[in-house]
């Protein structure tokens, strides 16, 4: 198949990571993939690992520049970029066009092409830039319901395809690398590492996690190091800095700017995702495949990822008390922690790899080809 995938930019969001993983997996399966992306080269050094993954693959990256610091020039660039994509979709004979960025869906719509789009989160606004696709991929039960209620898709136009993550997360770094990383972060060998990989924004629930840890008994808290990986999506309002500086456990917190999370998962014992709103988060899958015990809020996609008590734990959204109780239970039972970490990795390797995701996405493309 010859496939065009549209992405507005490469950034630290799950949508970018998911799109890259899908492109890599489709290319590995022998398909020709054009990733048409804006702002590719202007992305920060924190995203170099994503660029390296693409550079080492058979994915053809087509860069169109959407933005500039000069407002007038930025508008001209956007118009030029849109024109380039329009012409490409008109004259290249693609078997499938996939708008991963929902607000680029108007482009294949303008040229009358059949296309697929993905509903990543259930908070998309119904504005001009979003056009209903020929087929829409929902990534969880909640996003599927949202497609129907908000955008009036018919049930037969929706395909449920779970995200999958890169196989590299299943291969651990060496013991020496783990020791070096822990030494760099001043983490003692006996300490339990709790981690969170997420952009710095309130909906990700960093404050919920911190409150839950602060609620633990002092003797339990002493055995913990908390590792936060993530940057502000735009600017900074000192929210996370204030949370950390005012926390009684601030000396046990390590906050690093967004970067390749792979080695950090390998030193985490417990991964907590306390988000107030989600779609089908990749970070919990990456952590599972890396062998972490995952605890997450019961927001979108939770029950499809976690069977509570079997391969991880779920807590009521925003319930600091419930999260703290789960942490206490695990921290006082290392045998349970190690058992569930192993179960978690096996479960993720069967259901949430990029190959499984790509194969299921190809089934959607074939439906697209046969649609009228």
Please, could you describe this protein's structure?
With 372 residues, this protein is of the alpha/beta class. The chain is built from 15 helices and 13 strands. It has helices at residues 14-28, 48-55, 71-91, 106-110, 141-151, 175-184, 206-214, 218-221, 239-245, 262-265, 282-289, 302-305, 320-331, 334-351, 354-370, and strands spanning 2-7, 32-38, 60-64, 96-99, 116-119, 135-138, 158-160, 192-197, 224-229, 253-256, 270-273, 293-297, 312-315. The strands form two sheets. It has a seven-stranded parallel beta sheet, with helices on both faces. It has a six-stranded parallel beta sheet with strand order 10-9-8-11-12-13, sandwiched between helices. Helix 1 (14-28) packs across helix 15 (354-370), helix 7 (206-214) crosses helix 13 (320-331) and helix 11 crosses helix 14.
How far apart are the termini?
19 Å
How many domains comprise the coordinates? Answer: 2
CATH fold node name of the largest domain: Rossmann fold
Q: What letter string, H or E per element, gives the SSE order?
A: EHEHEHEHEEHEHEHHEHEHEHEHEHHH
Helix/sheet category: alpha/beta
CATH architecture of the largest domain: 3-Layer(aba) Sandwich
Keywords:
single chain, 372 residues, alpha/beta, Rossmann fold, 2 domains, 7-stranded parallel sheet, 6-stranded parallel sheet, 15 helices, 13 strands, elongated
């Amino acid at each position: 198949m010859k496939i065009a995938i549209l992405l507005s930019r490469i950034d630290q969001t799950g949508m970018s990571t998911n799109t890259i993983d899908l492109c890599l997996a489709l290319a590995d399966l022998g398909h020709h993939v054009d990733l048409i992306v804006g702002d590719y080269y202007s992305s920060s050094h924190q995203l170099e690992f994503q660029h390296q993954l693409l550079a080492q693959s058979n994915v053809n990256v087509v860069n169109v520049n959407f933005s500039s610091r000069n407002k007038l020039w930025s508008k001209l660039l956007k118009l030029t970029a849109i024109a380039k994509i329009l012409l490409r979709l008109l004259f290249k004979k693609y078997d499938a066009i996939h708008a991963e960025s929902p607000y680029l869906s108007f482009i294949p719509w303008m040229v009358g092409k059949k296309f697929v789009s993905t509903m990543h989160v259930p908070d998309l606004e119904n504005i001009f830039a979003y056009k209903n696709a020929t087929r829409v991929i929902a990534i969880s039960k909640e996003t599927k319901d949202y497609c129907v209620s908000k955008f009036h898709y018919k049930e037969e136009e929706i395909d449920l395809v779970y995200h999958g993550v890169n196989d590299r997360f299943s291969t651990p770094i060496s013991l020496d690398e783990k020791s070096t990383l822990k030494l760099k972060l001043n983490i003692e060998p006996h300490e339990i590492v709790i981690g969170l990989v997420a952009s710095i924004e309130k909906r990700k629930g960093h404050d919920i996690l911190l409150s839950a840890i602060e609620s633990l008994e002092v003797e339990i808290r002493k055995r913990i190091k908390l590792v936060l990986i993530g940057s502000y999506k735009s600017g900074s309002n000192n929210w996370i800095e204030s949370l950390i500086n005012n926390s009684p456990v601030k000396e046990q917190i390590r906050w690093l700017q967004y970067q390749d999370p792979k080695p950090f998962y390998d030193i985490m014992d417990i991964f907590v995702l306390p988000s107030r709103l989600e779609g089908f988060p990749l970070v919990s899958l990456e952590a599972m495949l890396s062998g972490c015990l995952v605890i997450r809020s019961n927001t979108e996609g939770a029950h499809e990822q976690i069977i509570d008590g079997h391969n991880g734990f779920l807590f009521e959204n925003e319930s600091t008390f419930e999260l703290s109780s789960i942490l206490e239970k695990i921290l006082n039972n290392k045998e349970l922690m190690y058992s569930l970490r192993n179960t978690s990795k096996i479960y993720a390797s069967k259901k949430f790899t990029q190959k499984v995701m790509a194969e299921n996405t190809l089934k959607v493309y074939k439906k697209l080809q046969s649609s009228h």
